[in-house]
Amino acid sequence: MNPRKICWKSSAWNWGPKDGIKKHAGKSLLEHMRTIPDYRCDREKPHDHAEMLTYLVAGYLNGRASVGRALCWCEDNMEMLREHMALKQGIASEATISRMLNGIDAEMFMYAFMEWTAEILCEHGIHIIIDGKALRGATEKIKNGNAPYILNAIDAATQMVIAQLPVGEKTNEITTIPELLRLLDIDGNTFTIDAIGTQKKIEEMIISEGGHFILQVKKNNPSLYNEICDAFAAFESELKCPEKERSARLKKYLEQYDRWQSSEKDRGRVVYRDMKICTDPSFLDCINEGEIDYIQTVGCMEQVRVPIEKDAEGNDITVGKKEYLEKGTVRRPRPEKSDAMEAEYQQVGMISDLTLSAEEMAKYKREHWKIENNLHHVLDDAFREDRSTAKGSRNNLSVIRKIAYNILRIVIIRDHPGWGIQRMMDYFSTHLDLTEKMLFTPIPSFY
Q: Any idea what the Cα angle at residue 301 is, between residues 256 and 199, rounded to 5°?
């Protein structure tokens, strides 16, 4: 897998006096906000809805992780905002903002967000990660008591969000994923989805539209999961035998077999990864029965996280992978094999319509979890999304956060690689001109 190189189409962002800003193709964020229909009648418009949406983004962009705090930031920076917006009645109250977020069409708002992102980011030939996130703060306000979910789609290379779709209260992620795919450009793109997306309908939809997939197989698909795990265990056992004693039946599979292993220290533990693949998937019953004819690579990934331990003198007494799986450690019992992402000993199956090496498939799997670490965790940590109790406005408020998140990501990529979102928020709060640039002028595109 060759990672996509990120380049700016404009070599310089010509930012200078307000009457000398170089115009770029596309519209500013404020102009995109004006494409969203205003649901209010004429006599109820003391505040412009596009202006309200834009300055709310500004507050979140500058580290104010709630509607109330975001509006306080806007009050403090009224002079700058009035250089770009009329603000005839000043900054709206929190109650007015809440009514506005409840009233505007969530679908139209999401389309405006997607159009704005598409002007900045090339969305063809990319790796798109799809995964769901719970809005736990709104759980108690939902009738059935279940946490509402939103499906997110991000570009793996830039980590920017390109679309979101709420999971309806009477549906689930399996039925919502195809709806999200219909909103995206599938042709030429490669999709990774967790095991819940490993459904024939979803696979065929991606293939029919010219896309590709790398999907995980877990215990929610028990027959396929067990078949893959058992087959690779048999391959490994066979490889330990002298070549002349190997089974004739398995020989053709071993000719298409590949393995990739790695280990690294990460967050107080040593992580061992072992990916095994076979590019002859005919050992699967579903292939032999003619149910599926598009799978080209089948894989089995084992990941073991061994905790780093030290004795009273500070000496490293961390055990090796084999000993940890057999005996555990003094402080940790022997881990049980599981398909859960957070398991210390994880084993999952993988399937793809692409012909991949073991290293390529392992990299796709690892790239997939960027959505968890670099988006979902950030939304909860920096934007306090998990603490928001908004109900009717939760989907529109989620888009507000993601607009701010994408802007922060753009500046990180362009000017400060390696910075975190929280640090970039702090940077925005001390560089007011950067907020002006990102909200009120078109952003140069990159690919």
A: 90
Global pTM exceeds 0.85? yes
Q: What is the DSSP string of 351-401?
A: EESS---HHHHHHHHHHHTHIIIIIIHHHHHTS-GGG---STTHHHHHHHH
- The answer for residues whose C-beta is within 8 angstroms of residue 251's C-beta and 6 or more apart is none
- 421 or 248: whose pLDDT is higher? 421
H/E run at residue 405: helix 394-415
Residue carrying structure tokens 């940890």: 324
Cα–Cα distance for residue pair 13/370, rounded to 1 Å:
28
| Order of strands across the sheet that contains 345-352 | 161-167, 149-155, 127-134, 190-193, 212-217, 345-352, 297-307, 269-278, 257-265
* Coil vs helix vs strand at 259: strand
Cα 211 to chain centroid, rounded: 18
| 274-326: pLDDT as tens digits | 999 999 999 999 888 878 889 999 999 999 999 999 888 989 999 999 999 99
**Most distant CA pair in the chain, distance:** 87
Amino acid at 10: S
Alpha-carbon separation of residue 312 from 306, 323, 328 (angstroms): 19, 21, 19
In the numeric block, which tokens belong to residue 353? 């319509």
Give the whole-angstrom CA distance, residue 56 versus residue 66: 9
What is residue 263's three-state secondary structure?
strand
**Which CATH number is associated with domain 120-216?**
3.30.420.10
Q: Where in the chain is the domain with CATH 3.30.420.10?
A: 120-216
Q: Which helix (H) or strand (E) is 274 found in, with range?
A: strand 269-278
> Cα Rg for the chain, rounded, in angstroms?
25
Residues in a beta bridge with 273: 262, 303
